[in-house]
Amino acid sequence: MTVIPGHGAAVSLYPRLAWYGFRRHATYWAAALAGAFTNTVFGVLRAYVLIALWQARPGLGGYDAADAVTFTFLTQAFIGPMQLFGGGLDLPERIRTGDVALDLVRPASLQLWCLSEDLGRAVYLFVVRGGPPTLVGALLFGIVAPHAPAAFFLSVALGVVVSFAWRYIVALATCWVMDDRGLAVLSMVLTTFFSGLMLPLTIFPGWFGDLSRALPWSAMAQVPADVYLGTADPARALGFQALWAAVLLALGALMTGAARRKVVIQGG
Amino acid sequence: MIRTYALLAWTWTRAAAQYPVSFALMTAGGVVVGGLDIAAIWVIFANTGTLAGFGLTEVMFLYGASQLAFALADLLFGNLDRISRHIVSGTLDVMLIRPAAPFVQVASDRFTPHRIGRSIQAGAVLAVGLSRLDVPLGRVWMVPVMVVSGVVIFAALFTLGGALQFLLTAAPEVANAFTYGGATLTQYPLSVYDPRIVRGLTFGLPLAFVNWQPGLYVLGRPDPLGLPSWTGLLSPAAALALAAVAALAWRAGIRRYRSTGS
Question: Which spans are transmembrane here (chain A) (predicted)?
Fold first, then answer.
């Protein structure tokens, strides 16, 4: 038996897909840099609003003004890798065109296939779209140093997995709901508001704040930022993210099975 | 020009009306997305009574005025930011040989009537803010003037962003920093920003004339930078000046454009 180099073991399939995802996004470096520029400009605007709020209420939500500024630029840096405005997957387009039938009969898990590509994408965007806002924030306002760098990177990685698991569910729902744009808008509303991208969830009042901090979207921006700032216990934070990642991935796997049973391939 | 625009926009509106459920849902989506801004303002004022010297109703008034202007400009001219796609796909060539101004064609192409949802939401916030403010009749006439000036300023920004894309076809998102960035910037009283930025927005890129200077006039409040109270009345002039610059930039972009020819 001969093994064709590079096409052999299935173990190498997913790392390979991740690498392709990375390379594919690296092609559009100008668009990524333009996105980084826009994220940076909005970061500066958000920072001023939060500085004004923290001047009125020093120590609000357990942050000082420097923490609030750091929080702003970190969450702006997460927009690209975590795809906080949604999208990043080809799946809805492939469902609409019917190409998904091909994906579903491949001898590989559709969910892991997409996850691998998405992780490659996230690594590239973490550097190219995450770096500039953080640097500019540090130069203009000064940001605090990471409290626990290793835990932070782990938390970002888990955040990407939660983000992917959520976007995969939204994308796959296109199989049942014909208009995917409405779903995309709904997902964007939930993600931008409950991830902490608009305002830190720590300043949301009362039961609404408790609820928002327990929902999965907080794992995408609020929790990694808290791990960076040292305002959350790293072990508990990572456990929270891992729990939501497991729940959402399991739900996505169930939906994949249901989609596979639902799809009808027309011969021809 | 206006007739051509209205005709093209009406065609797209009729197309959108073929899917009434989608249209209703997308309009409602616009209201909800705008509602998020209000939720953020609500969270801020749940934590503090004043932000940079302004109370909740004043912020609602300033927010409503600038966002109504932006939403209307986005409805009418927002599709100018799709020009890089027209350049890349070659459809701009088709527009250039048609007997209608390319500006009108690009602005009205894929006209999206459901963007009216954002205008409705912003208009409602403006109305609520104004009704709670007790503005004297002698100054309330400035409100429609500032909204119209704001529409012109944001339309000019969309035009400038479109003209910029003749240079930056690979990175059209840069223009968003100026158009959507301008809308975000004017959501809160400009007193939250560094005075140097506010000066730049007064004497350079005239975003201070969208809602800040005319808003101070309507509210009867002194300018933190010490400019006289009639500065706000200059909004229409500032809007026309920016529109003239944008028109020149657009013409330069069209003139400079060279088709790939295939």
Answer: 26-49, 122-144, 150-170, 182-208, 238-259
Taking CB atoms and an 8 Å limit, are A42 and B51 in contact across chains? no
Of B40, B176, B185, the CB nearest to A45: B185
Q: What is the mean pLDDT of residues B10-23?
A: 89
Parse chain B into domains and list their residue ranges: 2-256
CB A177 within 8 A of CB A201: no
The distance of B245 to chain A (nearest Cα, Å) reads 23
Cα A83 to Cα A87: distance, rounded to the nearest angstrom: 7
Q: What is the ipTM of this complex?
A: 0.90
pLDDT at A264: 65
Domain boundaries, given as residue ranges, for chain A? 11-262
A35, A42, A53 member nearest B48 (Cβ):
A53
Query: The whole model's pTM is what?
Result: 0.90
Query: For residues A129 and A37, is the Cβ–Cβ distance under 8 A?
Result: no
- A91-126 burial: b if 16+ Cβ within 10 Å, else e: bbebbeeeebeebeeeeeebbeebbbbbbbbbbbbb
Do residues A117 and A167 lie in contact, with contact meaning Cβ atoms separated by under 8 Å?
no
Neighbours of A185 (CB within 10 A): 18
Q: How do residues B122-150 score in pLDDT, each as one tens digit? A: 999 999 999 999 888 889 999 999 999 99
In this model, does residue A9 exceed pLDDT 70?
no
Cβ contact A199:B39 at 8 Å: no
